[in-house]
Specification:
single chain; alpha/beta; 3-stranded parallel β-sheet; two-stranded parallel ribbon; about 40% helix; MlaB_ABC_Transporter
């Protein structure tokens, strides 16, 4: 499982994306799950990182889901019209 850090803003986004890309490349299996439960401080860059991770997973032929997405981040995703692209992990 891939894990987001507690803080993910514009400043942290490039490093976080590199970390997630490395994690995806090192994983096997048919699903990519990102654990966002530790994420407490974020801006819209967190959504950009999640969407890029979804694209990377899709390019690798994997499904994508997010675990522990906070209500605030889910609300932001809904506001942007992308909540459906960030399905909750079972």
């Amino acid at each position: 499982m891939l894990v987001l850090p507690p803080k993910l803003t514009h400043d942290e986004a490039p490093d976080c994306m590199r970390m997630l890309q490395q994690g995806l490349a090192g994983q096997s299996g048919s699903a990519a799950v990102v654990d966002a439960s530790a994420l407490v401080r974020f801006d819209s860059s967190a959504l950009a990182v999640l969407l890029e991770c979804r694209r990377e997973a899709s390019a690798l032929g994997r499904s994508f889901a997010v675990k522990g997405l906070s209500p605030r981040l889910r609300e932001l995703a809904s506001l942007y019209g992308i909540a459906g692209l960030l399905p909750a992990a079972p």
